[in-house]
């Protein structure tokens, strides 16, 4: 027994110094960190240092009641690579830059057009403290402007921009929400193209406008979706949970508020590398505005009008996408998932087939009420 | 050995006690010798039951039969027994060359106390008394079962205190009972004054963090435990009983759980376990999250914490230990202080100190909130012994977390669970969830 005891003591004696040598995570008090809220990446004027990073930093306060005005600090630096720029930025700050709380990454419009997205993405993915669940968006005119703008009525400690993308804030049908992980998937995956929302900073009005989006098509200039197309994309991809759609047909003009959207699609392969895009959308809601007097008995008639209008909307959008060869909804992924790899068309064949695809669209509208109690 | 010799021996043995009284009554050819210790004998009883009848009796034979018929009558077995019983308050009577023991003990501690450790809103408000016999009487009057057995032992080499082992013969696990008996035999302490002492003496481990017996002052809890097949130990002069074997979850129940409706007691249980987890983990979570992984907070919270720590000179773990230290001091002080002063102590300590500490920025606001939350949630743990264990335990968790962050906390918690799983209470697994085994139809550990 004493031998065993001696061994235990020896073991502990050796273990304790070894443990102290172990470097675990680093102990750093929270007040020695500075939290980054938004990362902005731009193209700089400098040829040698093409990237310009702008960071929005939170200024910590002990009580938001005492200082309800939002306070931020900004850091900006050019660099040859993103890491280099951030390394320089760290020397500007007395505290450790902590990216764990940054929720939004804004890419400047110019930079986006230069086809450098995959380089940026590489940096964002490799850095461990940048969250994959951050949102990614395009800044117009530049990311720096968006990052440095504080909108009207913004609360302390919570940049207004976050509310646009988060589910708890506005639920606009025009806002596309793209997470970093999703963006990466869409960028690397064949058969689905990334969509990035465009944040426009209106300096004079002191507010942001987010109602357009970019579709990134492989090796091509990014295609800008208009507000209408952005909305259509949101509905078809079920990104939006509520939407207002107007109908103007057969002398009737009304707006329907859709609160339940369900959309399915399928690629049907036909002979000779022909495909058919089969879409099935169901919209349930009520009429929220009308020029004419509406009757409850005629609700099914209004629904049919609405269906026809919806079909036109959606077909327009799909045709446009097919013309430019963009596939934001992911028909290609659907095709790949259905067909065995040895029977698939080549990428060129697929692109060709997609461009000439037949659209078969079905909209089931169900308007439940005219919105008025009669 | 003849009776005369025994009396002589007793006389010698009890000579050092100057209260030893020898009374010789001799009247009309009746003769009786009485020996007793004045301070432990009820003199009224002695007067009414022995002395008055003595003068009324016709013959010595009648007197002898009368004494034998008294309910206080006890058979004499050995001279050592006589000595012990005399010290306990018996009267030794010598009639016709025979020795008789009569139990006339005087006890002033047989009043039943009010509950003050395990207070409840529903249920009985009365606790045990200081007197062993009264306590056993309480148990017997509430547990009408012929299988209820009580064994007596004298423990404590010097003070020879009476210890009672109480159990239901049909429900108790015999191996548990054997372990308790053998361990009780091995106890050789000079003085035994409390049942909770036995908790340490019957435990074969040198250092144990968790109690292996549950202390209670409520007769209803004792009854409940007896019915569940537990063994209850009582010590004379102590108003608390201990029951064993226990499982961890025994310490998280109150008797009131049975008195409430199902949903309410479910809610209260949830509340209690939340309190347990909170009081155990909150300080370490604070250290781990603020100093290693501020990402886990919501952004606003991270900023508030960071902002409130501005100007605090200490690292987060020093801050936590510092505030916990004062909280523990406060808790300890309010136990020792007389009731009238303890309210002032809590006000000064809790309110004034708390505000002053943040004003002087020795600790952050958030820290004060956390410490208060921890203090409150510690009180939610219904059995005091477990609350003490948790108080010690959370310091250990703070230590690992300060060294290794949240990963350390998880590991530390894991180690705690492993320790609990490894632990046993008198042969019964400590972290047993359901102690009701369907085939055996036992229900111990349900208290």
TrEMBL record, chain A:
The keyword Ligase does not apply. One of its GO terms (biological process) is spore germination. Its main location: membrane. Belongs to the GerABKC lipoprotein family. One of its GO terms (cellular component) is membrane. Residues 28-200 form the Spore germination protein N-terminal domain. It is found in: Membrane. Coiled coil: none annotated. The lineage of its organism: Bacteria, Bacillati, Bacillota, Bacilli, Bacillales. The keyword Signal applies. This is Spore gernimation protein. It comes from the Bacteria. It is a lipid-anchor. Keywords: Germination, Lipoprotein, Membrane, Palmitate, Signal. It comes from Ureibacillus sinduriensis BLB-1 = JCM 15800. Residues 224-371 form the Spore germination GerAC-like C-terminal domain.
From TrEMBL, chain B:
The keyword Membrane applies. InterPro entries: Spore_Ger, UPF0353/GerABKA_families. One of its GO terms (cellular component) is membrane. It comes from the Bacteria. GO terms for biological process: spore germination. It comes from Ureibacillus sinduriensis BLB-1 = JCM 15800. The lineage of its organism: Bacteria, Bacillati, Bacillota, Bacilli, Bacillales. This is Spore gernimation protein GerA. The keyword Membrane applies.
């Amino acid at each position: 027994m004493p031998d065993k005891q001696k061994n235990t003591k020896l073991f502990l004696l050796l273990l304790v110094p070894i443990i102290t040598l172990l470097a675990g995570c680093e102990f750093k008090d929270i007040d020695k960190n500075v939290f980054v809220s938004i990362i902005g990446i731009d193209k700089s004027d400098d040829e040698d240092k093409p990237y310009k990073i702008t960071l929005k930093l939170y200024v910590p306060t002990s009580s938001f009641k005492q200082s309800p005005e939002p306070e931020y600090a900004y850091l900006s630096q050019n660099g040859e690579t993103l890491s280099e720029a951030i390394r320089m930025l760290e020397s500007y700050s007395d505290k450790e830059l902590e990216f764990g709380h940054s929720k939004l990454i804004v890419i400047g419009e110019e930079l986006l057009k230069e086809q450098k997205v995959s380089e940026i993405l590489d940096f964002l993915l490799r850095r461990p403290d940048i969250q994959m669940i951050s949102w990614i968006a395009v800044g117009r005119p530049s990311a720096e402007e968006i990052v440095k703008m504080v909108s009207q009525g913004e609360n302390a400690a919570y940049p207004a921009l976050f509310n646009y993308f988060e589910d708890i804030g506005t639920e606009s049908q025009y806002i596309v929400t793209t997470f970093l992980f999703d963006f990466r998937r869409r960028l690397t995956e064949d058969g689905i193209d990334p969509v990035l929302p465009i944040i426009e900073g209106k300096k004079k009005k002191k507010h942001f406008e987010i109602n357009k989006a970019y579709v990134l098509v492989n090796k091509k200039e990014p295609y800008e979706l208009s507000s209408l197309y952005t909305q259509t994309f949101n509905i078809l991809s079920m990104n939006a949970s509520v939407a207002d759609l107007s109908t103007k047909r057969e002398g009737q003009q009304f707006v329907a508020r859709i609160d339940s959207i369900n959309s399915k699609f399928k690629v049907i392969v036909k002979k000779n590398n022909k495909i058919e895009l089969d879409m099935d959308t169901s919209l349930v809601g009520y009429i929220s505005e009308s020029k004419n007097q509406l009757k409850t008995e005629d609700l099914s008639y209004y629904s049919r009008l609405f269906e026809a209008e919806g079909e036109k909307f959606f077909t327009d959008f799909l045709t446009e996408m097919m013309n430019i060869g963009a596939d934001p909804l992911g028909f290609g992924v659907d095709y790949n998932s259905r067909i065995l790899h040895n029977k698939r068309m080549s990428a060129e064949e697929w692109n060709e087939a997609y461009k000439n695809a037949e659209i078969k669209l079905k909209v089931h509208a169900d308007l439940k009420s005219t919105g008025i109690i009669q | 050995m003849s009776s005369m010799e025994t009396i002589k021996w007793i006389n010698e043995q009890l000579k050092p006690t100057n209260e030893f009284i020898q009374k010789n009554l001799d009247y009309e050819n009746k003769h009786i010798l009485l020996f007793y210790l004045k301070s432990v004998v009820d003199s009224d009883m002695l007067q009414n039951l022995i002395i008055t009848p003595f003068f009324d009796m016709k013959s010595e034979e009648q007197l002898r039969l009368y004494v034998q018929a008294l309910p206080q009558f006890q058979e004499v077995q050995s001279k050592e027994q006589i000595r012990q019983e005399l010290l306990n308050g018996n009267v030794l009577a010598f009639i016709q060359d025979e020795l008789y023991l009569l139990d006339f003990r005087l006890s002033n501690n047989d009043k039943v106390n009010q509950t003050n450790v395990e207070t409840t809103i529903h249920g009985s408000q009365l606790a045990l008394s200081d007197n062993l016999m009264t306590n056993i009487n309480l148990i017997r009057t509430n547990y009408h079962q012929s299988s209820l057995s009580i064994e007596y032992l004298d423990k404590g080499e010097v003070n020879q205190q009476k210890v009672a082992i109480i159990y239901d013969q049909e429900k108790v696990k015999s191996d548990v009972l054997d372990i308790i008996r053998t361990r009780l035999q091995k106890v050789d302490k000079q003085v035994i004054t409390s049942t909770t002492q036995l908790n340490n003496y019957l435990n074969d481990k040198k250092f144990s963090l968790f109690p292996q017996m549950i202390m209670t002052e409520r007769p209803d809890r004792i009854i409940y435990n007896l019915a569940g097949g537990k063994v209850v130990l009582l010590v004379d002069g102590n108003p608390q009983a201990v029951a064993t074997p226990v499982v961890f979850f025994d310490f998280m129940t109150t008797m009131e759980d049975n008195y409430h409706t199902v949903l309410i007691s479910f809610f209260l249980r949830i509340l209690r376990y939340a309190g347990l987890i909170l009081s155990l983990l909150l300080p370490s979570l604070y250290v781990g999250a603020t100093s290693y992984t501020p990402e886990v907070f919501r952004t606003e919270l991270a900023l508030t914490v960071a902002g409130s720590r501005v100007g605090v000179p200490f690292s987060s773990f020093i801050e936590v230990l510092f505030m916990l230290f004062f909280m523990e001091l406060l808790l300890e002080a309010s136990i020792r202080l007389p009731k009238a002063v303890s309210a002032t102590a809590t006000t000064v300590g809790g309110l004034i100190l708390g505000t002053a500490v943040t004003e002087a920025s020795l600790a952050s606001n958030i820290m004060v909130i956390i410490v208060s939350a921890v203090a409150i949630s510690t009180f939610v743990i219904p059995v005091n012994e477990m609350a003490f264990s948790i108080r010690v335990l959370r310091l250990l968790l703070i230590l690992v977390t300060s060294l290794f962050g949240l990963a350390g906390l998880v590991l530390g918690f894991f180690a705690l669970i492993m320790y609990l799983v490894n632990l046993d209470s008198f042969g019964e697994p400590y972290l047993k969830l359901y102690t009701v085994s369907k085939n055996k139809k036992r229900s111990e550990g349900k208290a």
